[in-house]
Write a structure and sequence with these properties.
AcylCo_DH/oxidase_C, alpha+beta, Alkylation response protein AidB-like acyl-CoA dehydrogenase, globular, flavoprotein
């Protein structure tokens, strides 16, 4: 970890970031990344960030980052959201696979994959979820059988975020079924697969709001080099848990995103004529307090981490809090918009589509559904509560069948 920085250094970095964003953030919001044209524009933006040196400011300099440390990384995120910059699309690579490679990857793997994912020349997606597995990730059935210097992969992954646009997938596969029968967490391997390989079929999924940001991925006799294994063969569960820890935990600075959401909700409520409505103001105040609590927690965890503290026990707690808070924000918005809550799909197809307030409500409706999904992906909140009760609080374990 880099040395702690002074307040002056943080504010100098903040001013640098603010000036760069003011010059480079697109004047108009980019189209949704859930369609190819919008995705390609988001990818162009990611390359602009990389060229400016802002793709992963928190990464170590040896891997192409800025070695910014936590306080400057938080300042970057706060300025990024404040500037209304585009949504990031390579989070699977930057915040999941990248850190995993730094922890478990070989020097050759890091040199092969990290530069391209940092520059967004390669988009990665996560292949963990499978049909019928529910929250029991270790029950996965995708198989990888050794054949010389390759694995032959057969199976299916589902609910793959950005799967329809990704170039590569990092997936959990079962390489030793016998070990899995004795202890289901054994015999699992973390394997990186080129989605352009023969035998891979990607089918985009249309969601309830009409978007196609997810996909299901099928593998039929897909040959994958053994050198694509991250960590040890048959011992991928530890790698998977590290990946989920990055996914569930606090992304330092993401509190600014939720604060922006509340500010956006306040503007929409005002546009609807409810600026002086006491009930509406009470609702806004309630979700504002939640975002301030979360912001204070992010700063607390940053200070703990800089002091060398262990944050392993916080991942599940954070996941429960931020996903419930996000849901509450968008649920509040949906209730306050009342009949406008029926707005779904493409706002351009609706009467009055030029009205920016109407477009904003449509986007709010879409994000409401995604906020509900956040309480499921990365391990359901019910499972996270079990983890907190058993591993953090030391309460008796839930009976297992």
């Amino acid at each position: 970890m880099s040395m702690s920085v002074t307040d002056v250094e943080v504010e100098e970095f903040r001013a640098e970031v603010r000036a760069w964003l003011a010059e480079h953030v697109p004047a108009e919001p980019l189209p949704s990344w859930t369609e190819r044209a919008g995705f390609d524009l988001h990818r162009d933006w990611e390359r602009t960030l990389f060229e400016g040196g802002y793709a992963a400011v928190d990464w170590p300099a040896e891997y192409g980052g800025r070695d910014a440390g936590l306080r400057r990384s938080i300042a970057f995120a706060e300025e990024y959201y404040r500037a209304g910059a585009p949504e990031r699309i390579n989070m699977g690579g930057l915040y999941l696979l990248g850190p995993v490679l730094m922890q478990y990857g070989t020097p050759e793997q890091c040199a092969r994959w990290i530069p391209d994912l940092l520059a967004c020349r390669t988009i990665w997606c996560q292949g963990f979820s499978e049909p019928g597995s529910g929250s029991d990730l270790a029950s996965l059935r995708t198989r990888a059988e050794r054949d010389g210097d390759h694995f032959v992969v057969n199976g299916q992954k589902i609910w793959t975020s950005m799967g329809g646009f990704a170039d590569w997938i990092f997936a959990l596969v079962r390489t030793d079924p016998e070990a899995g029968r004795r202890r289901k967490h054994d015999g699992i391997t973390f394997l990186c697969i080129d989605l352009r390989s023969p035998g891979v079929e990607v089918r985009p999924l249309t969601m309830v709001d009409g978007t196609r940001g997810f996909a299901e991925v099928f593998f039929t006799d897909v040959r994958v080099p053994v050198e694509n294994v991250v960590g040890e063969v048959d011992r991928g569960w530890a790698v998977a848990m590290s990946t989920l820890g990055f996914e569930r935990g606090a992304v330092f600075g993401d509190h600014a995103k939720f604060s922006n959401d509340v500010a956006s909700l306040a503007a929409l409520v005002s546009a609807r004529g409810l600026a002086d409505d006491e009930a509406a103001l009470d609702e806004l105040g309630r979700v504002l307090v939640q975002t301030e609590v979360y912001r204070a927690n992010v700063y607390r965890l940053a200070a703990l981490a800089e002091a060398g503290g262990n944050l392993d026990s916080t991942a599940s707690i954070n996941k429960i809090f931020w996903t419930q808070m996000q849901h509450d924000i968008f649920d509040t918005g949906l209730r306050l918009m009342q009949e406008d809550g029926a707005v779904v799909g493409d706002p351009g197809a609706l009467p009055g589509a030029d009205d920016p307030t109407l477009r904003a409500w449509s986007e709010w409706h879409h994000r409401y559904w995604y906020a509900r999904a956040a309480m499921i992906f990365g391990g359901t909140n019910e499972i996270q509560r079990n983890i907190v009760s058993e591993r953090v609080l030391g309460l008796p374990m839930e009976p297992r069948r």
